[in-house]
């Protein structure tokens, strides 16, 4: 599965739409995030579905001559479950036939101003509890001087804030194959500056499974931004071995009580689908059971050592 993200700085013209089509075809993209379309969402969805056959799109309208989002996917590769819009963002929950996972995709265009407040409010959304999450777009932040180029380059004052934010969410920034900027002010000499403002991030759950993740900065964009790509593929076609719960563990009241306390009832008002809510509960139960079984094994081993060495 290959994702493409690009700030298009307007997508009303046919030549720009054809560039997006070319990027999809040349890179075999399966999902696309487009920011700053500056077009009425439903009109753009109709245009893109007519131009790019076999794809589905959802949108957020532009506000005047700014904003606007598109999130699209190749229909034959996904089963659509749910979608909704949020402040400066657009989310779709899709089941990937290739990866055999339900994935929450979030396309963002983050503001420059009031940055901390925006992100602190954003991460309160239920979607950030999803076990398999991919989000990104034009995030308008860099993670250090290594992501800024130019004579007058200065580190983002919120670098530590974003490092801590990603760590607290269990979100991973996959290092690009080559260190390149995704945005440039297109000036020359000492006035020129470039940054890696666009990126695609994933939840750590992808790293816990047999997935290979690669991210790279492309070329051939239609604005002062370059396209960003993320590839997620399975390392092995072999199915994962299921977690084996020992029925005898249910005889232990302490474990049963811990499992009951950890289970979160289904919430019909949650943005997460029933399947994702159930999956989160199973993941929590698995972690508690493994931790309990390890403690039990250590206790048993200690008793055995005492009896056999005394």
Describe the structure.
The protein is of the alpha+beta class. Helix 1 links the parallel strand 1 and strand 2. The protein is globular. The protein has 2 domains: 2-234, Endonuclease/exonuclease/phosphatase (Deoxyribonuclease I, Chain A, 4-Layer Sandwich); 247-309. Helices cover 30% and strands 29% of the residues. The chain is built from 7 helices and 15 strands. The strands form 3 sheets. A 6-stranded mixed sheet has the order 3-4-2-1-15-14. It has a 6-stranded mixed sheet with strand order 5-6-7-8-13-10.
Biggest beta sheet attributes: 6 strands, mixed
- Percentage of residues in strands: 25-35%
Mean pLDDT: 89
What is the SS-derived class?
alpha+beta
Whole-number total of structural domains: 2
Q: What is the name of the CATH architecture of the largest domain?
A: 4-Layer Sandwich
What pattern of helices and strands is seen along the backbone? EHEHEEEEEHEEHEEEEHEEHH
CATH topology of the largest domain: Deoxyribonuclease I, Chain A
Distance between the termini: 59 Å
Order of strands, widest sheet: 3-4-2-1-15-14
Q: Give a count of the beta strands, DSSP E runs of length 2 or more.
A: 15
CATH class designation of the largest domain? Alpha Beta
| Spatial extent as radius of gyration | 23 Å
Q: Determine the number of helices (DSSP H or I, runs of at least 4 residues).
A: 7
């Amino acid at each position: 599965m290959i994702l493409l993200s690009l700030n298009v700085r307007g997508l009303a013209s046919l030549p720009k739409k054809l560039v997006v089509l070319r990027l999809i075809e040349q890179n075999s993209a399966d999902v696309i995030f487009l920011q700053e379309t500056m077009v009425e969402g439903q009109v753009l969805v109709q245009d893109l579905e007519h131009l790019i056959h076999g794809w589905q799109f959802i949108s957020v309208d532009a506000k005047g001559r700014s904003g606007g989002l598109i999130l699209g996917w190749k229909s034959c590769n996904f089963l659509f479950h749910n979608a909704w819009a949020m402040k400066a963002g657009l989310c779709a929950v899709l089941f990937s036939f290739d990866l055999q996972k339900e994935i929450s995709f979030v396309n963002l265009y983050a503001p420059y101003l009031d940055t901390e407040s925006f992100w602190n409010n954003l991460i309160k959304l239920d979607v950030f509890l999803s076990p398999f999450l991919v989000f990104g777009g034009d995030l308008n932040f860099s993670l250090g001087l290594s992501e800024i180029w130019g004579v007058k380059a200065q580190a983002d004052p919120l670098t530590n804030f974003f490092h801590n934010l990603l760590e607290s969410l269990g979100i991973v920034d996959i290092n690009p194959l080559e260190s390149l900027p995704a945005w440039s002010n297109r000036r020359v000499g000492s006035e020129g500056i470039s940054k890696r403002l666009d990126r695609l991030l994933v939840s750590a759950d992808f790293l816990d499974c047999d997935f290979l993740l690669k991210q790279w900065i492309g070329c051939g964009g239609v604005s002062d931004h370059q396209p960003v790509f993320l590839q997620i593929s399975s390392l092995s076609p072999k199915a994962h071995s299921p977690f084996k719960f020992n029925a005898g563990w249910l005889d232990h009241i302490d474990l049963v009580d811990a499992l009951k306390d950890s289970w979160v009832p289904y919430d019909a008002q949650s943005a997460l689908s029933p399947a994702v809510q159930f999956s989160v509960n199973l993941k929590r139960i698995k972690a508690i059971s493994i931790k309990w079984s390890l403690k039990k094994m250590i206790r048993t081993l200690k008793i055995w050592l005492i009896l056999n060495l005394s």
